[in-house]
Specification:
The structure is a homodimer. With about 110 residues, chain A is mainly α. The first copy, chain A, has helices at about 20-30, 35-40, 45-55, 60-70, 85-95, 95-110, and strands spanning about 75-80, 80-85. Helices cover about 55% and strands about 5% of the residues of chain A. Chain A is globular and about 45 Å long. The interface of A and B includes residues 73, 94, 96 and 104 of A. Chain B binds a DNA duplex (30 and 30 nucleotides) through helix 4.
Chain lengths: ~110, ~110
DNA sequence: GCGTCTTGCTACATATTATGTAGCATATTG
DNA sequence: CAATATGCTACATAATATGTAGCAAGACGC
């Protein structure tokens, strides 16, 4: 029972339904996006410092992600201060705080 | 030679530091991974039902993600029941619950 | 037995996306 | 004037995803 198979895909990737959660999951599911948000959790970084923090991700994709996140209102570029989270971005990052603790438990259970 | 998707991967991408959070962020940052976890929040789905739920993602990458998530101990395949979250997977999904509410606020602020 | 479902999963050619290296224009410092 | 750092881009190569097709194994009714 396929629903809407073959319909247009001109909306945000991964969000044919238009439900915001789908658009958000898709945005966060692109390479380096979650990592970027994470690395900015304690303060702003210049684009190059951010690249270094993200295992030397290529500048091409890094700029793409930064533009996307800026357009999404989660990041902003302050002159002389580099990239930092907006209030909305900080709010989103709050939801990821439990992730670190989970990651610790997860790595122990998986490696066994 | 492209790396075989879905096969064992001893060094997790994006985690040179070995910090679990980096491995987790990288795993969740692959295409369709977050979406898969999300779509299974209310119960198990067969691989094909899951593909339909995920905007008809290609079976190739879907199987790759399912294998990765199984290897990560977040998903399991139950005979006759399809794919479902493990206890660990359910635990992880708990941390994403606030995301839906955030997504609603986010979409309103961004569209303006 | 047969045929028709559905399941998880794979092959393969094509399209999309990321990498790595180099470089640009602008600004700031000495 | 260098010398340095910023944000950002070009471009060829490598890695990933897509879309279509199909496989083998079960379960169902006949």
């Amino acid at each position: 029972m396929p629903k809407q198979a073959g319909t247009a895909k001109k909306t945000v990737r991964g969000s044919r339904t238009g439900r915001p959660i789908m658009a958000l999951l898709d945005l966060l599911g692109r390479r380096w996006t979650l990592r970027i948000m994470w690395e900015l959790r304690e303060g702003s970084l210049t684009s190059r410092a951010l690249r270094m923090a993200c295992d030397e991700a290529s500048p091409t994709v890094m700029q793409a992600r930064l533009s996307e996140l800026r357009e999404a209102g989660l990041l902003e570029l302050a002159q002389g201060d580099g990239y930092g989270l907006t209030e909305l971005g900080k709010e989103l990052n709050q939801t990821f705080i439990p992730l670190q603790r989970f990651a610790e438990r997860w790595s122990k259970q998986v490696s066994s």
